[in-house]
Amino acid sequence: MNPTMENAIIEARDLTVTYGGNQALAIPHLAVGRGELVGVVGANGAGKSSLVNALLGWSRGAPRVTGTVYLAGEDISRLPTFVRVRKGLLLIPEGKLVFGTISVEDNLLSVGAIEAKGRHLYSIAEIYDLFPRLKERRHHLGAELSGGERQMLGIARALRLGPSALLLDEPSIGLAPRLVSTVLATVRQLADAGLAVLLVEQNVRAAIEVVDRLVLIERGRIVAEGPAAAMRDDPRIAEAYLGAHAA
Amino acid sequence: MNLAQQLLNGIVLGHAYALLAIGWTVLLGVARLVNFGHGQMYMLGAFVTWYAGARLGMPYLAAGAMAITAGMVIGYIMQRIMLRLTLKQDLVTIMIVTLGFGYVLQGAAGLVFGSTGQILETPLSRIDIYWGDLWFTWQDIAIIVVAMLFFAALKYVIEHTGVGRIARMVAEDPALALLSGINVKRVYLGVFAFEGAAVALAAVMVAPRTPILTSMGFDEVIITFAVVVLGGIGSIAGSYFAGLALGLFTAFFGAFVAPAYTTAAAFAVLIAVLAIRPRGFAAAPGSR
Fold first, then answer.
1. Rounded to an integer, what is the distance from CA B172 to the centroid of its chain?
2. Would you say residue B63 lies in a domain?
């Protein structure tokens, strides 16, 4: 199910990212539809993070980004990051993804000024239903949370802002295997609830179990793309990422 | 030499120092920024108040409001000019730019207000109060009251309101704040406007205690720096107590040892304190 431009929630055309003269990413076209979960896999340094960051015009470094990004058909490429966020494009970045010096509950209080037309802003109560663990920890500081709890809080913070598209950058990194499947199952649930989800993962074996489509990136370029079932049998995926016995 | 009088002087001076430093405390706490033009902004606040009162005949409150508005505008413009540096968190360049900005303000103030000293009189500073053998003015009382109210209000806003939460988020991680939909640029502009307004308020309250000169900015920025560092960078309560401690130290040292060496002695104490507690009063001993 390759979404056409009409039903794509997030779509990028001719997206390039350059760091000090070195091109890190060149993507001619990428789209994620409503309720679709697309996995982006590839080796370390392949450009996966550059891709999701570029969709928001955001980075902790100083890259140059060109190309066009559409959110539900609207060209958002010229908008500053915080406006894209308010319009419903949410990124849960890799590494530091929650505020450590404020409480879990303060992390979850929204900042207002969200253009929530036709989007669902999760209430705090809904968040605590989805992640009971966060309710238990609500008075703790963000910095006191475990890796898994931080991922939950990162996702929860995004849900509070009413996403129409959710970008997750390596949510499984550093998590115990059982937690990885819990987090990915939650992500699947959110896609089934209607969100467009782009999931960056190094853990291909875990990702392929939940995604609808898989995009393989190497050295900043898409080298393979297709439905999860088909990609499982693709030799480039099977040999390099799943190990020989999975082929 | 009266002990109670020195204690009173120290308390008044301490609240004056705390008030002087509060703008920079917030600036450092929220935006991780410095403003070495802070002292000259104080000077300008004092001269605007003086000019509005003595030359334009405006009442003290109106003159003060005018100075605070001018401070806010100058703070905003200053940040507007350096916004790119701020977003890059290029501290060294910001230090130089703000230092330069301060001297531009000083030169401009010299041109407009002249280089002779002036006395900034207010209806409160003219009324002496004698209480036993203690002497003070209503202006002294007003400094203490305004400083206490301002610190209490600010602490409440930072810790218990939405604006405060946003400020704390930007302080911790501006990049992550963007991903929360926060307009970080506007927060930086707002913080600098606040810094300008706060230092102008300090000038309106404190400057009537001493003659004012267009060249007085540097001394003020040095005191501010000492209070902010001693208080534990960016801590509001820490700044309050650091200001008070520095005020008491200055009063007693000046009275019992030698007024000429108070600044030198204050910095000797500052160095000693920082050697023992590198993060100032606010940090618990042994914390990082």
1. 23
2. yes
